[in-house]
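<given_protein>
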Amino acid sequence: MSTELGRFIENLRNSKNLSQRQLAEKAGISHTEVWRLESGERKNPSPPVLKSLAPHLGVSYEELMKKAGYIEEVIDHTGYTETVYKDDNGQVVDIYRRAKDMYEKDSDWANLAYRVSASDLTEAEMELIKAQTKSLLEQFLKNKKK
C-alpha cells in the first residue's frame, strides 16, 4: 500500500520521465530504496535519503521533509520563516529553545557551532567536523563512566 509520501515521490519522478532506477542513480541511492518509498514499504525514510532525492525531483528538501512528517509546519512571519520540526518519535522539537540552552551553557561553543554551520565548508568538510566532534563526545562520556 502506497503512502502519501510514496505517491508524491512517484508522481514527481514520473513527471520528470525518470524510472526508479534512473532516479536512484541520480540520487546515489539504491533503486530498491526508491521502490520501497513509492510502495509504502519504507514508512520513515532518513533525512539524508530525502535530501539526495529532492533536487532530482524538482522540490525542496524542506518539502520532502514535511511530506515525510519530519517538519510539522512552516510559518511565514514578517522578515523570517519559522520551521517546526518533529523528532523520530513524532514529538515537536523546539530548536530555538535548544539553541538558547546551548548558548546559555557556553556561548563560545554555540557561536563556534553556528559559524561552522553557516560557513562555506563543503559537505565532506562538515561531515568530518561532525564525525570528529561525535567521536570526542563519545570518548569523553565513556571516560566519565569509568
Summary: The two ends are 49 Å apart (CA to CA). The longest strand covers residues 71-77. The CA atoms of residues 44 and 78 lie 33 Å apart. Helices lie at 4-15, 20-27, 31-39, 47-57, 61-67, 95-105, 107-117, 123-145.
